[in-house]
């Protein structure tokens, strides 16, 4: 077992993607000392250009950090960051705090909390929501659960990164449970917004007009209002990718299987995102789920001729 660190002076943020980079920058601008970590050179350079310091591997954070935010894609990456060959768990000082911010299965979050407690570490189950813009502004919603000691240590970080902190329980798992409900709704709403726009276009309605009407009517949703402009502009630059919802809705169904709980509406949304990924749109913005309808019905999406040669 590697020797553990004995003191810490910085907050580590592992994962400098859209959400992680924004969060790390918000912490930095709040006056906290922050060290970012990402295997991607460009991500590290982006954070350094904002005044932060960065390293390429999690183990390099351990000697300087007593609080580490894990802002990665999935449970497999969380496992690697914490327990892999260059992982943190054996190297952080006792009493250090791990804030687990990725969307993972509640059962995994609960188990992770138990394993970290056994290793002498604190864990805050702290999945985040709000998108890259709110991450950058320090205005995220944090769905959290953990011990009083974990909350006490996390206080300055939560204050800097979040507009709202929901305290949902005293053990890890509750935060991830609520985040899973949020992701179920978000995925269903995006898929429904795409289907609604595709239907309107198929009926010959001007898509911009349709957007204006729906956003002022009872059928509106936050996701409709936020994602449909991507469709209207024909801009599928990924802010949150199709494959993220393939992952998250699969976690929804993994949890449903564990509970013997049927979710037919979210199952349908998962199939649409899976179809979009299978058609080659997995790394595009999640609004690209609308392209499934383009393939099925031959509708012409805004800017489709420029983007896909009219396919």
Automatic annotation (TrEMBL):
TM stretches of this protein: none
Catalytic reaction(s) noted: L-threonate + NAD(+) = 2-dehydro-L-erythronate + NADH + H(+)
Gene3D superfamilies according to UniProt: N-(1-d-carboxylethyl)-l-norvaline Dehydrogenase, domain 2 (1.10.1040.10), NAD(P)-binding Rossmann-like Domain (3.40.50.720)
Domain called 3-hydroxyisobutyrate dehydrogenase-like NAD-binding: residue spans: 173-293
Span of domain 6-phosphogluconate dehydrogenase NADP-binding: 10-167
EC numbers for this chain: 1.1.1.411
Swiss-Prot/TrEMBL keywords: Carbohydrate metabolism, NAD, NADP, Oxidoreductase
Pfam family, one: NAD_binding_2
InterPro entries per UniProt: 6-PGluconate_DH-like_C_sf (IPR008927), 6PGD_dom2 (IPR013328), 6PGDH_NADP-bd (IPR006115), HIBADH-like_NADP-bd (IPR029154), HIBADH-related (IPR015815), LtnD (IPR050006), NAD(P)-bd_dom_sf (IPR036291)
Active site: 179
GO molecular-function terms, A-Z: NAD binding; NADP binding; oxidoreductase activity, acting on the CH-OH group of donors, NAD or NADP as acceptor
Described function: Catalyzes oxidation of L-threonate to 2-oxo-tetronate. Can use either NAD(+) or NADP(+) as cosubstrate, with a preference for NAD(+).
Entry's family note: Belongs to the HIBADH-related family. L-threonate dehydrogenase subfamily.
Name of this chain's protein: L-threonate dehydrogenase
